[in-house]
Amino acid sequence: MAGCASTQQKSTAYSSDTDPYDSEWIATADDPIGMLVVQKFKRDRRQVQSGVGSDNPLVSEALNYLGIRYRFGGNSPDTGFDCSGLVAYSAERSLGLKLPRSAADIAQQGISVRKNELKAGDLVFFNTMGRRYSHVGIYLGDDRFVHSPSAGGVVRVENMNMAYWSKRYNGARRLDNSLLASARAAAN
Question: pLDDT truncated to tens, each residue of the chain (188 aa)?
């Protein structure tokens, strides 16, 4: 086989001690097909970790940040996220939509949605600080949402039916087509 002889090229093959999820740099060095395989493994792993598979771009984007640490005022994966930072960052990256920076201001966007009508990608709000809309997350389906919880925590998926979240649920908003159209028009 030509090209397979022992040359000093960097190998794209995964050894048993190399985690393919953490080895994206190996696959991209000289193997675009390997890169696609690694990306599929990452998507599959996110789905297994979160228990959610979704074609919703906002959901998919937010799930990319599972495990990123909480940081008050944080608005990127490099610095960490607070709840509204995660939502705003994910909305801008996936939808091109620039949302306000606070959960209370985000709660003024889109249209109100009843709890029994929630769809993946809807924003869910909670009263965690003695005031309405003090916490926001992204609904995934099956009563679960992704959010950046609080100091010492990381971006994670939780069940809205847990007593803590159920008692504090404030409502939900859907980022409607008029908001998305405005974002697209501003980008052009």
Answer: 444 333 333 333 433 444 444 434 444 445 555 555 545 545 555 554 444 556 899 999 999 999 999 999 999 999 999 999 999 999 999 999 999 999 999 999 999 999 999 999 999 999 999 999 999 999 999 999 999 999 999 999 999 999 999 999 999 999 987 666 665 666 65
To the query of whether residue 69 is one of the catalytic residues in this protein, the response is no
147 noted as active-site residue: yes
**Whole-angstrom distance, CA of residue 118 vs CA of residue 43:** 23
Q: DSSP assignment of 57-119, as one string?
A: HHHHHHHTTTTPBB-TT-EETTTEE-HHHHHHHHHHHHH-----SSHHHHTTSSEEE-GGG--
- Residue 135 is among the residues annotated as catalytic for this protein: yes
| Active-site option among 62, 65, 144, 147 | 147
Selected catalytic residue, list 26, 38, 59, 83? 83
Out of 74, 126, 135, 148, the active site residue is 135
Note the pTM of the prediction, 2 decimals.
0.71
